[in-house]
């Protein structure tokens, strides 16, 4: 791991432990084992580090999605992939994505940081809403909307349909953040949720 990447990794750990506002550039430099002037050669300030953390997290997520043979950025492509999945494959995909968000160290630390900071910093509260509400619902809404338009799913209210799919999964993720021992319970519920969603909205194979 090069110095620039180590700065991101140590900064994210500190942010997740102490909160963004309570971490200073000198703290990050000390954890990396360098002086603050050396850190500034890589990032001009703490905000630049934070912005790079978001970019890195999104890159890691995209790479993980590609490893699972889904696109993740183009709902038109994913709609075609989804239509060719049987229900068992869809359940496995749902559980794999859940496991990634729950266990990926980078993603987990980032979510913990935003959870700590959401009531202290309005901008970080917006980031939390963007990352875990607005962006997922927008993408999944486009994906499900395409499937409804193509007659593969049946719904007269795609936004509500999207919320019904996403909300239970994110709720279970937050439960497992607090109580990791409930992961197997969550996985079983996710499977039941996905199978019921298929029945509710009439997925046609």
Q: Can you offer a commentary on this structure?
A:
- The chain is about 75% helix and about 0% strand.
- The protein is mainly α.
- The N and C termini lie far apart (about 45 Å).
- The protein contains 10 helices and no strands.
- It has helices spanning about 5-20, 25-30, 35-40, 45-65, 75-85, 85-105, 105-115, 120-150, 160-180, 185-200.
- The mean pLDDT is about 90.
- It has 2 domains: about 1-55, Orthogonal Bundle (Arc Repressor Mutant, subunit A), CATH 1.10.10.60; about 70-200, no CATH class.
Mean pLDDT: 91
Total count of domains:
2
Percentage of residues in DSSP E strands: under 5%
Question: Oligomeric status of the shown chains?
Answer: single chain
Helix content percent band = over 70%
Question: How is the biggest beta sheet arranged?
Answer: none
What gross morphology would you assign? elongated
Outline of this structure?
By secondary structure, this protein is mostly helical.
Keywords:
single chain, 205 residues, mainly alpha, Arc Repressor Mutant, subunit A, 10 helices, 77% helix
């Amino acid at each position: 791991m090069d110095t620039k990447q180590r700065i991101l990794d140590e900064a994210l750990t500190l942010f997740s432990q102490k909160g963004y506002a309570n971490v200073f550039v000198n703290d990050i430099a000390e954890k990396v084992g360098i002086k603050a002037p050396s850190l500034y050669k890589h990032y001009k300030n703490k905000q630049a580090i934070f912005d790079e953390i978001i970019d890195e997290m999104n890159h890691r997520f995209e790479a993980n999605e590609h490893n699972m043979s889904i696109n993740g950025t183009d709902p038109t492509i994913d709609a075609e992939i989804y239509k060719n999945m049987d229900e068992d494959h869809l359940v496995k995909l749902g559980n794999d994505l859940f496991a990634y968000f729950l266990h990926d160290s980078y993603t987990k630390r980032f979510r913990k940081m935003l959870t700590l900071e959401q009531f202290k910093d309005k901008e970080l509260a917006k980031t939390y809403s963007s990352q875990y509400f607005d962006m997922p619902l927008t993408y999944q809404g486009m994906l499900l909307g395409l499937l409804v338009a193509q007659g593969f799913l049946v719904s007269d209210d795609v936004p509500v349909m999207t919320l019904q799919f996403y909300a239970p999964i994110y709720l279970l993720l937050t439960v497992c953040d607090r109580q990791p021992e409930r992961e197997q319970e969550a996985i079983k519920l996710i499977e039941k949720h996905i199978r019921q969603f298929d029945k509710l909205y009439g997925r046609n194979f």
